[in-house]
Give the backbone structure.
Amino acid sequence: MAEQQFDLVVVGGGPGGYVAAIRAAQLKMNVALVEREHLGGICLNWGCIPTKALLRSSEINHLLHNLDAYGFSAQNVSFDIAKIVKRSRGVAAQLSGGVKHLLKKNKVTVFDGAGRLDGVAAGGARKVAVSKGGKAVASLVAKNVILATGARARVLPGLEPDPACIWTYREAMVPAKMPKSLLVVGSGAIGIEFASFYRNLGAEVTVVEVMDRILPVEDEEISAFARKAFEKQGMKILTGAGVKGVRKGAGSVTALVEQGGKTQEIAVEVIISAVGIVGNVEGIGLEGTKARVEKTHLVVDGYGATGEPGVWAIGDLTGPPWLAHKASHEGIACVEKIAGLKGVHPLDTSNIPGCTYCMPQVASVGMTEAKAKAAGRKVRVGRFPYMGNGKAIALGEPEGMVKTVFDAETGELLGAHMIGAEVTELIQGYGIARTLESTEAELMHTVFPHPTLSEMMHESVLDAYGRAIHF
Amino acid sequence: MPINVLMPALSPTMTEGKLARWLKKEGDAVKSGQVLCEIETDKATMEVEAVDEGTLGKILVAGGTEGVKVNTPIAVILEEGESAASAAAPAAAPAPVVAAPAAPPSTAAPASKPAAEPAADAGRVFASPLARRMAEQAGLDISAIRGSGPNGRIVKADIDAARAGGKAVARPAAPAAAAAASVPAPAAVSAAALAAIGPHKLVPLSTMRRVIARRLTESKQQVPHFYLTVDCVIDRLLAGRAALNARSPEKGPGAFKLSVNDFVIKAVAVALRQVPAANASYSDDGILMWDNVDVSVAVAIPGGLITPIVRNADAKGLAQISTEMKDLATRAKDGKLKPEEFQGGGFSISNLGMFGIKEFGAVINPPQGAILAVGAGEQRPIVKDGALAIATVMSCTLSVDHRVIDGAVGAEFLAAFKRIVEDPLAMLL
C-alpha cells in the first residue's frame, strides 16, 4: 500500500483531535485525521451534546408540571421518550455533520478507520496504519502524530453492561422505553446528569455513591446543597455506599447495596453504571514505544509529549480532568508546540471549569475551600444565595448559591463554586478573572448588569470582604 | 464627622512609604499646620501637617511601619464633640489628603522639566493585578521581574519564582517577551544562588538601594556612555578661593567658606551656559534643551547617595552656591530633602577628590545627558614652557550620553570648563 505523506496525523476525531487538526491546518500543516466511528467523538455523539438535548427535554417537563406558578394551565401533559431520544440524536448528527464540514473547509484529510502507530519510517518519521473492520485501508507517514483516542466507561466487576438492565452512558442515552425506576451507581457529573434527567421525567431514582457526598469533586457546600435539592425532588441518595452484587430478574434487577456495614436490596428496572472512565490505550501501537501508561492513561508533559519522539497525546487519553474543553485546549497547545510557535503555554489544569447540567446546575473553577485550606492558604469565603437576586426570583429560580474563595493575603481568586439556574453559563466570568489573575479589587470594580443572575457573582465577591449589599 | 488623615504622596511616582514616627499622640489637640508625623520615602523624610483642627482621635498606622500605601488612612482627626469610637471604621469615609506639603508643585511647563522618575515613563509594566499585589507585598520591584505570561506580561508564577530565588531567570524566556519589552529588565540576582559562596549576612535592600540598582543598571544598559578626561591646573583657583574666604565675616548669616567643589559647580554652570548643547536630555521624541542650568551634585548619605540640585547655578554667586550646597548636603544626610530638591536637574557632578581619587568615570543619571567626575587636586609635575614645573592639577572626566551629546560638543564643554577653572576670574564675566 502506498504511503501517504502528511505533516501531522491525528488519531481520534473527538473534541481534542478535530480541534488539533483544524489548528494544525490553520498553521499550514498538511493534516490527516483518523476517526473510527464518528467525527466529534464521544462528546458530540455520546456525551456532552446529546445529554444536553435530553436534559433540555426533562427541564421542559419539569416546567410543564409547574405551569401554574407562571399563570398557565395545561391538561394531560405527556411526553414520548422515543421522540426525546430522536431529538437528541438529531442534535448530535447535525453537529457531527458540522465537524465534517469544518474539517473539509480546513482541508484536513479524514480517514475512516482505526489508527495505530506502525513504527518509524526512513528519516525518523512516524508511520500510522489505518484499518477498518480488520482490513488495512491506508498507511500514513508524518513527522508528528497526535493520539487522541479518548476514553470509555469504566466497568466494575458485576456491573458489566447489559442492554436489558445494566447501562452505561451509552445505553442510558437511547432508552427504548422510559424506565420506571433506576439505580445510578456513581454521582460524578455523568451519573448525576442521568439521575436528574430520569427523575425529572418521573422515574424513581436512587443514587449510590461510594464517597461520603455526591459530586465529590465539587466544594463540600455545593455537594450538600445539591443533595438537599435532589432529595427535595424525590431522588434517593445513598452515600458511603457501594453495590456488592446484582441479581437479574425478569424485567428488573436487584442491587445489593452496602452502606455502613448493612446491606439492603434495591430492586429497579435499570442500573446505570457511571463509575468513571478508562483511557483507550489499547490497539494504538504503544507497544515498544517510550510512551508510558499509568492507570489506563498516557503520561505526557504540559504540551502532550509522550517521551516517544514524534508521538504526542491529548485529551481523555491522558490525565484528568477528563473534559472536552480540556482536550480541545490541549490539542491547540500541542499543535502550536509542534509548529514551534512562540509563546506557547501549557494548559493550566487548575483553571479548567467543570459543569454539571443537572437541575439545579453546578459549575466550578479552581480550588474548593477545603482544597485551598489543605494547600495551606488562608482563605476568605464569600457566599450569595439565589434568594437575594432579583432576576432569580423573577425567573422563579430561587434555589442556588454562588461561593467564592479568595486567598486572604493576596486577594487571589482561588476558586468559585456555583449551583443554581444557568450557572454553567456564568462560570466563565470567574474563569476569565482567574486567567487574568484578577484580585477581589478588579472583580469589585467590575460593573455587573442589572438585573441578571451574574450580579450574584459580584455580591459573592463583596461578601467575601464583608460588603455584600443585597443580603 | 471624623476626618481621615491619608498617607500623602510625596512625589507623583510615590506609591508607598514608611511612616517614620508620630509627633502627636492619640488625644493630642492638633491645629492646622502642626506637624503630625514624618514620612520616609526612598530618598527623603517629609513632615505631614494637619490641615484640620481637632483632636488626634486614633492612630491607625503605627510609627515605624514600612510600605504604607499612598492614600491609606493613617489617623483620624476628631472634631469637637466627637468620640474616638465614631472613628472606629475609618476606611468607610475617604477624606481629602490632609497634608502633602512636599508634593512637587508643577511650576514649569511640563516639556521643560525632566521627568522625576524616568523609569516610570520608560514604558508601562504589564503585570497582572495579582502579580502587582504580590510583588508589592513581597517588596519586589516589579519592573525588575521578567514576565512569562502572554506578550511578556508579569504573572503570579513570575513573582513566585522571583521570591523562590531567581528561577525567573532560569526559565526559558518567552521569546515574545523580549521583543515586546522596550526596556530589558535587569537580570535578577538571587541571594540563594550566591549563598553557597561563603558565610555571610544578608542585608535587606532598602528602597533607595533598589532605586540605585535599577536606575544605574538601566543607565549602563541603555545609555551609550563615552568618556572625556581633562587635567585642570587649579593653583589660581586655590589662590582665589583663599582670597575670597578671607573676606568672609567671622560669623553670622553672611559667613561663608567656599570649597573647591563650589567653584566646580559654578564653573560647570557657566560652561553649560556657554555650551548649551551640553545641557540637554535625550528622548525618543526629540532632544530636550534645558532652559535653566540646574546642577545636581552627588552627596553620599547613609545607605546610598542622593543628588540635590543647585538650581540656576549659572546665575548664582559662589557664596550663595556654597551656602545652598551646605544646606542641601546637611538635609540630604538627615533624609529631609523635599522631592523637588533632588528630582530633576540637567547635569550632575560627582566629586570623589576628598578621598584622594585621582580620576574616575561616573555613571550618567538618566535622563541627564552628562555627569562630571571630579578627582583630587594634587601637586603633579607638569611641563610648562618647555620645562618641568609643579602645579596643582585636578583631573575631571565627563561621562556623556552619545545619543544627545557628541564627542565634539562634549570636548567643547570640557574645554570651556577647563578654561573657567584655570582662570576663575572668568566666572565673574
Remarks:
- The mean pLDDT of chain A is 96.
- The radius of gyration of chain A is 24 Å.
